[in-house]
Amino acid sequence: MSENKDLPVAEQAASVEGVKFVYDFTEGNKDLKDLLGGKGANLAEMTNLGLPVPPGFTITTEACKVYLDSGEEPAALRDEVSAHLDALEARMGKKLGQADDPLLVSVRSGAKFSMPGMMDTVLNIGLSDKSVQGLAKQAGDDRFAWDSYRRLIQMFGKTVLGVDGELFEDALEAAKTAKKVTVDTELEAADLKKLVTKFKKIVKTEAGRDFPQSPREQMDLAIHAVFDSWNTDRAKLYRRQERIPHDLGTAVNVCSMVFGNLGPDSGTGVAFTRDPASGHQGVYGDYLQNAQGEDVVAGIRNTVPLADLERIDKKSYDQLMQIMETLENHYKDLCDIEFTIERGVLWMLQTRVGKRTAGAAFRIATQLVDQGLIDEAEALTRVNGAQLAQLMFPRFDEDAKVSQVGRGIAASPGAAVGKAVFDSYTAVKWSRSGEKVILIRRETNPDDLDGMIAAEGILTSRGGKTSHAAVVARGMGKTCVCGAEELEVDTKRRRMTVPGGHVVEEGDVVSIDGSSGKVYLGEVPVVPSPVVEYFEGRMHPGADDADELVEAVHRMMAFADRKRRLRVRANADNAEDALRARRFGAQGIGLCRTEHMFLGDRRELVERLILADTQAEREESLKELLPLQKQDFVQLFESMDGLPVTVRLLDPPLHEFLPDITELSVRVALAESRQEPHENELRLLQAVHRLHEQNPMLGLRGVRLGLVIPGLFTMQVRAIAEAAAERKAAKGDPRAEIMIPLVGTVQELEIVREEADKVIAEVEAASGAQLKLSIGTMIELPRAALTAGQIAEAAQFFSFGTNDLTQTVWGFSRDDVEASFFTAYLEKGIFGVSPFETIDKDGVGSLVKLAAKAGRETRPDLKLGVCGEHGGDPESVHFFHEVGLDYVSCSPFRIPVARLEAGRAAVQSQGSDHR
């Protein structure tokens, strides 16, 4: 196709001989997910394994991309689909939608990455006013045939023709009310026949056309609808949430129908080879008799546990257990399986590597290592830093006095507290106002996605572990309790009635425990996670009372530490934070912000220093500050003995240390009006006016402050050197590194370094200690990155300050833009994620890469690190590994995440090297 790159996309596809847009299930395999999507590739893989898969074919993601780019399907696609349909009909011995014994098919989406419920599916294609009679005769069951037909019109009307789904639901509820029944399985053939007539009228009124009677037209329109569903708002929102690229497109799977709604000896279900909530081995899943697949995942009817299938249909149960073992051993991972039983015959409709909770991910990874199915390196690819961060969140205090009002299925763990809301719009609105909310629904559907993202947790009264709410919540790491049947949810009146008659109104606080399924009134207090207790050293792996999850986390962290090349340091400004960071596995301090040491009681000293009119006043202030600074560093070096400590010299915007200009002006004005003495305040106000800056973040700060206020940086360097000498005398091992902030040109660094070297030499001479202090700079300005080769002549290390570098590259003020327009940028897809959260590889990342390369060309032994917030971001850690940095530095609580991701980055880079 590259030879025809100047042609329109549709013509490119049509012009290339041999381009294949449709694959039979017998032609693909699990490694073709880019082309066949996850569902199609895995259907092909199961077919190759000889498992019972209904025959069918897959339309590729390439066809979808042509369609989305050009607005038309590839010219060759219709003929290819016709050829595969002919082959399918010949194999099945029946024609699509024929009157006497119709072949029916499903049309289902299937992107490379699982997007549960986000894109479209249509079942029972091929049914019409004529073929429904033939289906009834062939099956010997009128009710089944009319039930299947009403399902087709309902799904097709909503998915393909854009009819409001509530209209069909209301008509179905009205039919049940008229019949005085509560579930749709109690409706008889005559009731369903009337419902079909009603549904067709809804389509005619709302879509402005009749429901299509041509089977091929139904199939073609459904295929286009699946293509179009790639770009629905909910699909785009889900991709942004999960960071799935927007240019992949979806495949379409056309599969011969098998029917779970043929009576009590038929049914449909979802199974997991291990519990996706806990990771424990066993029989997990849901089964629903006399139903089609969408009934299970939609949570419309409450299912029975998969284990009950052994009693209902022992033969199918035993066969399913054998297939599940085959698939887990083949995929070497937790498998999520959809199946249908048609009159005692088992059919496999889908398998995929299942979504799981964070705890399950760690347990399963270590279990598979113990079983010999994967090695340690592969185990690291099965977990990630975001999951580890989830495990560090607090959980409910089991000893607290609580008011439990219900219990459902523990679908996705966590402790969530918030105000009850009953629709997605309110959840989003309240969340944006700063409220924590719990989204409560009878069952969720894909249109609830934005509310699910906004909520702290999700609670439903219907559905099981495989319902839409459960699957999506697990994928997002969101707390979820499903199927709390004793809770009566009334979304129209915005209330929930709990056993005993108590009513929870919208706005009332509720708490849900996704680990136990318990639902509480009011706010339940939380306690630290056992994983945090492990990192803090209060829980020991191998001890009798050790948490099973802690054991799994401990092992995975050991794997990561053995594999990683990147070292992990902490951002810490005092001895307490440094000790905590060391317990969490920090290998030093990558950023000690000395300005934090000057707040509180010392603020007045710094204020006097900045406003000093004479050299004598300035020296007096510095003399008072020196011993205080020295003691800070003594404590810091002691807590990090034997590990490097990078101390950044003072880098505040001046306004942080000066009185507020408005408050000071008011004080002066009041004093003048009262004719009170105010000489000091007036002098101070004049100085503040003199030093006032419109944009202090780009003003007199960092190295500029050190050059303008004589003695400031030399005082700090002396304090560092004397503290190091004191620790040496106490047989300690201080390893201080002095970092000069906000350097934009090598001349700034040379001046400061010359003064620093002189002070260090004086301290060495006085103490008799060899201090070996290194001096480097923070690269946080674009000019510093672009001239890094020159700056490296005077610097022994670089630390990338990616917070400020992001601000200066983008021209963003972090304090302002995140609240003002970042939400709009994220919603419009301009950002996939905030550049302050994950490093902008194309812009900021390019400067980091350029500066690292240029710096090491000048000084091959140049030490390179990063100390911005990106140092603890999982995706950014991988980037820093790739560009060859020596370490990342982050806040103490993110150190375990950075350690784990550094190990994963090493494993993945080794894997790509081997490829």
From TrEMBL:
It comes from the Bacteria. Residues 435-517 form the PEP-utilising enzyme mobile domain. Its EC number is 2.7.9.1. It catalyses: pyruvate + phosphate + ATP = phosphoenolpyruvate + AMP + diphosphate + H(+). Residues 74-302, 311-359 form the Pyruvate phosphate dikinase AMP/ATP-binding domain. It is an enzyme of class 2 (transferase). GO terms for molecular function: ATP binding; kinase activity; metal ion binding; pyruvate, phosphate dikinase activity. The active site is at residues 468, 867. Mg(2+) binds at residues 780, 804. Keywords: ATP-binding, Kinase, Magnesium, Metal-binding, Nucleotide-binding, Pyruvate, Transferase. Substrate binds at residues 593, 648, 780, 801-804. It holds the Pfam family PEP-utilizers. Its cofactor is Mg(2+). Residues 551-903 form the PEP-utilising enzyme C-terminal domain. Transmembrane segments: none annotated. Coiled coil: none annotated. NCBIfam families: PRK05878.1, pyru_phos_dikin. Belongs to the PEP-utilizing enzyme family. This is Pyruvate, phosphate dikinase. The lineage of its organism: Bacteria, Bacillati, Actinomycetota, Actinomycetes, Kitasatosporales.
